[in-house]
Write a structure and sequence with these properties.
single chain, mainly alpha, 0% strand
Length: 266
């Protein structure tokens, strides 16, 4: 137990060697065995994360009926779906359980990645990374909530009533569509945190983001068109609006990160 507390204390107070990138690259070339050690450490962190993901997925499977009932509310419930394959309900249940398990395990998965990256970060960045873990989860859940409560109710009537052709919706089709949309919108909501992290490391400048905002809006439009499940501009705008706001939020976070970095260097 005392060894654990010593390692825990050393993890937070140790300061990594601050060497230029060319020197770091030269050391890797001279001693490639160090890369294998890092890969082995990453393997252990990923293995623990996968174990936790498997456990949370198994627990989610216990509540699969309630999860499916909640997911199918925008389309009218489970009774609105018609399975045509023998294994279709099982495949649907596994997909929903996996997504639910990922959401529950996400704090631990991010924690394992933070522990892996921690030794290479400065003490202040290490602490900020730990404090950012709840924000990662909150932003991801916010993105999923936006997709479920805003995008699905807006997209489904358009898709189901297009050309007036009656649609017999399969469970596999609807669950793949809804869970995929929720997952990718949740990931898109991580953009401000990614920019904040890159700005903290000096890899991104807030001024450059602000100057090139027009290009960013065009790229967001292209990405929104790819993510949006329909071809109408209304649903595309529902995706673009929040992503543009997130971009300008990223600029503000980048300014904050640069200010902190400047204080630490001085």
């Amino acid at each position: 137990m005392s060894r654990f507390f010593k390692d825990f204390r050393a993890f937070f107070i140790a300061e990594p060697e601050d060497s230029p990138l060319p020197d770091t690259f030269a050391k890797v070339v001279e001693h490639p065995g160090g890369v294998l050690e890092h890969l082995d450490a990453l393997r252990k962190h990923l293995f623990r994360a996968i174990i936790v993901l498997a456990l949370t997925t198994a627990v989610s499977f216990v509540f699969i009926q309630d999860l499916l009932a909640w997911l199918t509310k925008p389309i009218g419930g489970l009774d609105a779906l018609q399975a045509i394959e023998v294994t279709e309900p099982l495949g649907v249940a596994m997909r929903v359980a996996l997504l639910s398990g990922f959401v529950v395990a996400m704090p631990y998965i991010v924690f394992e990645l933070w522990v892996f990256a921690g030794p290479g970060l400065k003490r202040s960045a290490r602490l900020r990374g730990l404090l950012a873990i709840p924000m990662v989860v909150i932003f991801f859940l916010a993105g999923m909530a936006f997709a479920y409560y805003i995008m699905l109710p807006a997209a489904l009537p358009f898709l189901l009533n297009f050309l007036g052709i009656p649609a017999a919706v399969r469970p596999a089709s609807y669950i793949r569509f809804s869970t995929g949309l929720m997952f990718w919108i949740g990931m898109a909501f991580q953009f401000p945190l990614v920019i904040f992290a890159l700005a903290s490391m000096g890899l991104v400048r807030a001024r450059a983001l602000a100057v090139h905002w027009r290009i960013a809006v065009i790229l967001i439009a292209v990405l929104s068109a790819a993510i949006t499940p329909t071809i109408d501009p209304v649903n595309m705008g529902l995706v673009m609006g929040p992503m543009i706001l997130l971009y300008f939020l990223s600029i503000g976070l980048a300014y904050l990160a640069q200010g902190r970095r400047a204080k630490e260097e001085n």
